[in-house]
Amino acid sequence: MRVGETIFYIMKNLGIRQIFGNPGTTELSFLRQMPGDFTYYLALHDGVAVGMAEGYYLATKKPQIVNLHSTPGLTNALSFINEAYVSRIPLIVLVGQQYSNKLVDEPILYGDFIKISAGVVKSAFEIRSESEAVKVFIRAYKESITPPYGPVLISLPQDVAEKDAGDQITIPKHFVGNLCDEATINYVINEINSVNSLAIVAGYEIALFDANEELRKLAEKLNVPVYNEPYMSISPFDSTHPLFKGSLSRYHASDVMKELEKYELILVLGGWLNYVVFPDVDLAKLNVIEVTYDYKEATRRQWDTIVCSPKDFIIKLTEKVNKKFSFTSTILSEREKDQDNFLAEIFRELNRYMEKYVIFSEAPTHRDLLINNVKLKASSFYNTRSGLLGWGLSAGVGYSLYGNNVIAIIGDGSFNYSPQALWSAVKYEGKVKVIVINNKGYRSLAKRGIEADWLSPHTSPWKIALGYGFEAKELKDPKRDVEWLMGDDKRKLLEIVL
Ligand SMILES: Cc1ncc(C[n+]2csc(CCOP(=O)(O)OP(=O)(O)O)c2C)c(N)n1
């Protein structure tokens, strides 16, 4: 088998039958070898291809492959690869390289991909000869799925893709442990038993490692409030649950401090407490125990940290802990009292449909209004973790390609970073609804004291959508138009101009 065929063979054995990309000359020798039962998902922007692969991962929990076009494609996609790096999404980023014997001449398209990608991938390798192909691919795969998960880059010279890699391919299994040991659980139980108040802060790892139900049981057994981590990228907890206390502020650490200093102990489970835009105070003053699968996150923190599977930790703690705190919960209707405006009503209207849908959100000004008014189940809300605009629509489309129903709720500014994703949704029949909230520019920036023309780009996203073959219109009658959007299974975009 040739190197390309070998790579597809390994992918198939690992259960991967699709590839995301935007090709160029340097990838064609590899892509010519793609078997007929693979799907190539074309994106009209290299970053969107990566974003779609990330969304597909979130839907399937299986690592995904992206194929990028040498230096132009890779550099175009770096911000999305960084998103995967920050949000711990396992990807193999396969980049077409110039002929292996001409790299020294640096022809057009050539690049030092290992240098270019440094800082946004876990590791990067170049397949220098056919004999390395299998080893490199297996190594990249293993690295991507060893916690903390993340993207790994492979550079594949276009001539090497066509060389004979032999027929002896063995694909090893890779098991990763990280169960939590008893002494650690006992330590935490002692700490819990010595305090009078406790709060849980839950993060994205709860969803990544399917621990939503286990978290609910622990919270109920302890009877303690549960907060979303400040920069919530995946909803970890049902927002209608009486123990749910809402999201911590993603802006000021001082607001996080104000909320959490009421508690004698804070248990951070699979999330990042100090991941805020303005780190104005040091949260290390709080009494925190943090549990994470991610040793890198743990080593940065100045409080107690435990590196093991958060799911295993939660299960074992729930079994052994015997304390019930006195905490009076708040029901949802009380929390949403002061949210009466036009947009809040539209968001609440969506509740009729949320059984079937997940939300990909990227509307900075309206994020909190959305979270406070839509009843979010665990793992039903997704948002960029790195702060990258353009991710929500791309990842939402990728998530829908696995057959899921998605509502993307996107600001007009954010929409313009990746409208091309709509083309892929149409082409591959993703079940996507889009709501664009058009406040005529970058409101979340302008409201911080700069009312400048360059923060107010006016565009008409619904007209752009039409150009990609996506049914779209501007909202005129709130009730009727939300019904138009949500009342059937068709792909549609509704633009709400404020
Ligand atoms: C790739 C990228 N470029 C720039 C920014 C900075 N940024 C943050 S919010 C924002 C404005 C987004 O506009 P819109 O989606 O309409 O939301 P609004 O601010 O109006 O709520 C910008 C440009 C970013 N987060 N990501």
TrEMBL record:
GO molecular function: 2-oxobutyrate synthase activity; 2-oxoglutarate synthase activity; acetolactate synthase activity; flavin adenine dinucleotide binding; magnesium ion binding; pyruvate synthase activity; thiamine pyrophosphate binding
Keyword annotations from UniProtKB, A to Z: Thiamine pyrophosphate
UniProt xrefs under CDD domains: TPP_BFDC, TPP_PYR_POX_like
Pfam families xref list: TPP_enzyme_C (PF02775), TPP_enzyme_M (PF00205), TPP_enzyme_N (PF02776)
Domain (Thiamine pyrophosphate enzyme N-terminal TPP-binding) ranges: 1-100
A GO cellular-component term linked to this record: acetolactate synthase complex
E.C. numbers: 1.2.7.11
Reactions the enzyme catalyzes: a 2-oxocarboxylate + 2 oxidized [2Fe-2S]-[ferredoxin] + CoA = an acyl-CoA + 2 reduced [2Fe-2S]-[ferredoxin] + CO2 + H(+)
Signal peptide limits: none
Biological processes, Gene Ontology terms: isoleucine biosynthetic process; L-valine biosynthetic process
Gene3D superfamilies tied to this protein: 3.40.50.970, TPP-binding domain
Thiamine pyrophosphate enzyme TPP-binding domain mapped to chain residues: 383-447
SUPFAM superfamilies per the UniProt record, alphabetical: DHS-like NAD/FAD-binding domain, Thiamin diphosphate-binding fold (THDP-binding)
InterPro entries xref list: DHS-like_NAD/FAD-binding_dom, THDP-binding, Thiamin_PyroP_enz_cen_dom, Thiamin_PyroP_enz_TPP-bd_dom, TPP_enz, TPP_enzyme_TPP-bd
Thiamine pyrophosphate enzyme central domain segment(s): 187-314
Function: Catalyzes the coenzyme A-dependent oxidative decarboxylation of different 2-oxoacids such as 2-oxoglutarate, pyruvate and 2-oxobutyrate to form their CoA derivatives.
Similarity comment text for this entry: Belongs to the TPP enzyme family.
Subunit annotation: Heterodimer composed of an alpha and a beta subunit.
Protein name per UniProt: 2-oxoacid oxidoreductase (ferredoxin)
Taxonomic lineage: Archaea, Thermoproteota, Thermoprotei, Sulfolobales, Sulfolobaceae
